[in-house]
Amino acid sequence: MATWTDQLGRSGLRSFTDAEGHFWLEQNAAKASKWAKLARQGHDVAWEFDKLGGAYTGRMLVDGEIYTPSEATKKFLQKQK
User: Measuring CA to CA, which residue among 34, 33, 35, 28 is closest to residue 9?
Assistant: First the structure.
C-alpha cells in the first residue's frame, strides 16, 4: 500500500497512522490464519487499532478498502472454497 510509512520492531511488519490517528498494522503473512493466506496470495491486508498500542477497532483494510472481517470474508474468502 502506498500509505505504509513505518515498520514495527523486530517483526518488520509495515504500518501507518491515518488522518484520524488510527494505527494500521500489516497482516503477518507468515502466520497460519486465513488472513495470512490472503496476504500470501498478494493482497494487502491490515488491521485497524484506535492508536499505536490501542484496542482493535473491528475494521480491516484489504487492497485499500475498509471492511469488517465479516464483509471481507464474504468478498474474499467464500469464493475460495
Answer: 28
